[in-house]
Amino acid sequence: MATQTQGKTGSERPSPGQTQEARYERGLKKMAEIYGVPVEDFIAPLGDLGRYMVEFPYGDIYSRDGLAARDREIATIAMLTALGGREPQLRVHVNSALNVGLTPDELYEIILHTLIFAGFPTAINALSVLSDVLSKRDGGQKSV
Amino acid sequence: MATQTQGKTGSERPSPGQTQEARYERGLKKMAEIYGVPVEDFIAPLGDLGRYMVEFPYGDIYSRDGLAARDREIATIAMLTALGGREPQLRVHVNSALNVGLTPDELYEIILHTLIFAGFPTAINALSVLSDVLSKRDGGQKSV
Amino acid sequence: MATQTQGKTGSERPSPGQTQEARYERGLKKMAEIYGVPVEDFIAPLGDLGRYMVEFPYGDIYSRDGLAARDREIATIAMLTALGGREPQLRVHVNSALNVGLTPDELYEIILHTLIFAGFPTAINALSVLSDVLSKRDGGQKSV
Amino acid sequence: MATQTQGKTGSERPSPGQTQEARYERGLKKMAEIYGVPVEDFIAPLGDLGRYMVEFPYGDIYSRDGLAARDREIATIAMLTALGGREPQLRVHVNSALNVGLTPDELYEIILHTLIFAGFPTAINALSVLSDVLSKRDGGQKSV
Amino acid sequence: MATQTQGKTGSERPSPGQTQEARYERGLKKMAEIYGVPVEDFIAPLGDLGRYMVEFPYGDIYSRDGLAARDREIATIAMLTALGGREPQLRVHVNSALNVGLTPDELYEIILHTLIFAGFPTAINALSVLSDVLSKRDGGQKSV
Amino acid sequence: MATQTQGKTGSERPSPGQTQEARYERGLKKMAEIYGVPVEDFIAPLGDLGRYMVEFPYGDIYSRDGLAARDREIATIAMLTALGGREPQLRVHVNSALNVGLTPDELYEIILHTLIFAGFPTAINALSVLSDVLSKRDGGQKSV
């Protein structure tokens, strides 16, 4: 499998001469695209951790061709819910998930799906985050 | 959000008069569809736990309309990888994921995606399961 | 074991013709009994997740004959403590545990018992929840 | 609560002049009682970790009066199941639980109960341990 | 290994006649040394849990000769970060780590190091705790 | 803190024009240094996951100046123990830890230290890995 996968994904590998600067710029652009807002203010206070977040999760992983952004956010919401105790990141990624085309109902379905693998408490906590984000995005409008 | 979601998903709610037997049959059919093989031999040794698995994860959750089977397996593979220590279930769901249309390369991408949220050890363990399942399905052929 | 257990618990299996409505009603009654208060307002905002909570944890699991409610809450408090990050549910189940007959001192003992299997941080967090719930139930009276 | 609990449990506090040797002996006796077999061979290879296990979990916690051994094993089985990845300890405590009076069916019920709080994969893994321990204790007899 | 380690660490073993009172006093002194402040007010509300914390983590483990306090806090910060959901204890131990000689930059490096093994969400949460503790210790001075 | 740390660690930041190839080479060298053996055979079967492991954990994080390799392995052993279910990686890093100067007794102390934060089961599992690695490195000699 590895050889196979290695081969198929080989074209996504950055050319050896690619600079770190290019990788950072690619990550910054991808991160802003996922977050739906400019991210400089978010990453600056994190120091090198912010730089690594731009470079590795966004410059490397999210920038790969093999999985759509929508699919990545399905995986992300499911993991952040099931692992528990990651509410700040779940809040960010509920917004990201909506930005890349997942609907509120689909997010609700993903949270329901986690019941099978992680039980009810983490799902209830995630639903609380989802409801809060949605009500804030609605600007308090109940009708959306 | 809740009212909204409740409303939109209301049509998926089993009619109040639906029997437990109908729910069990629906779950058994869905589970066999996801697993790709008859599941009676798998669930029988589990006793009531097997019955609940048919009824709740498959009769209730997987049978909902709001999220495609492919999307559900993306979430499942990501969670089982990130939570760690669930290798037997990961093995089952790598097969399920392939059955519902995810490709080996997409499964590889999902495992890479978990690096962001759960680090390298659980991803490496999951890749080991993926490689093993793929080589078994290939009947030892390296060329697939 | 499975066959044995399956056989012994067979009498608890709902008759095949039992309707979903009957299961929901049984769950609602059991959940209110455990919580000690009417639960409709708690589950309504959760949408289908609320319905599943009534049906599966309370209509199916808590309604089984093989383990007393007091024993179930011992297991529940221990798990919610040891898993960590599930404080809202721990708060609910401290109240449930008191409702089904566990004493404040027994809850304190269960939290101490988790030290062996999950260490000090989660036990200290759980003790904080326990103290808070007890002081609220006392109406601020220190003497109880 | 703390003051209250502190007061009520104060009588269980070992007298200040009690020696470490007495505590170790108490732990060794309690541990053998729970395990149902002499434990020296089990703890010797662990070095000081074995000594601490005798002293703290068994000499201190299990020796407290406030919670019965049966209740402690309910909590233990639930935690070891829900936390996952602790199969060797689950194996030991399935035996301990049987030794202090829990029945195979009650252990099965505790595992079912964890479904609510930790989902299906860890419960299925625990059931596998339970089945294996029970078949070994039966000496291969299916009829017990 | 066990025999070897057992042998080498044998000198750290409290003499069999040592009293519980001596162990408690040793733990109290060690805990105050690590925390950098008197700890009676911290442990009193915890009841016996507070006593056990003095005795076992501080009287037994932290008092061992085989690992420096600085090394212990490296392990502690890494674990509390990676496990997640233990922010109150992380807050305490960021202070402890600074007290035993780790610098703010070293704590930042430890948090970065956890990225490898537990991913970004828990590291970001830990960085938030670190920043908050440091700004409070600075008395709001940005220049330190 | 962030600005401060960012400033202090700024000199460790790779120059913007540094190529990915240079980063990969730095990671490969650092990884071999930590592992104590050539690592190409280890990473090749992992495909891009192997490349990322070279680049991010070793090329970026382990290559930072702010924390010694010995300190990094203290954190690593503690995390892998406390998180549980990561035995293959623990096995690798017990060897790494010995390579960078930690002694068997210090590794034993780190495992004991995890008792405070994660309880006994994960520590016992880690001790089993430690004993096994040590006996293999000894070539079966008991006297080391």
Tell me about this structure.
Six copies of one chain form a homohexamer. Chain A has 144 residues and is mainly alpha-helical. In chain A, 72% of the residues lie in helices and 0% in strands. The radius of gyration of chain A is 17 Å and the shape is globular. Chains in contact: A-B, A-C, A-D, A-E, A-F, B-C, B-D, B-E, B-F, C-D, C-E, C-F, D-E, D-F, E-F. Chain C binds chain E through residues 84-85, 108, 111-112, 115, 120-125, 127-128, 131, and chain E through 45-49, 52-53, 57, 80, 83-86, 88-89.
Q: Which tags fit this structure?
A:
homohexamer, mainly alpha, 8 helices, 72% helix
Summary?
Six copies of one chain form a homohexamer. Chain A has 144 residues and is mostly helical.
Question: Uncertain regions of chain A: pLDDT < 50 for 5+ in a row?
Answer: 1-12
Give the mean pLDDT of chain A. 88
Gross morphology of chain A is globular
Name the biggest interface: A-B, 46 and 46 residues
Could you give the count of β-strands of chain A? 0
Instruction: Return the structural class of chain A.
Output: mainly alpha
Give, in order, the helices and strands of chain A: HHHHHHHH
Oligomer: homohexamer
- How many strands, what sense, and barrel or not for the largest sheet of chain A? none
N-C termini distance of chain A: 46 Å
Strand content of chain A: under 5%
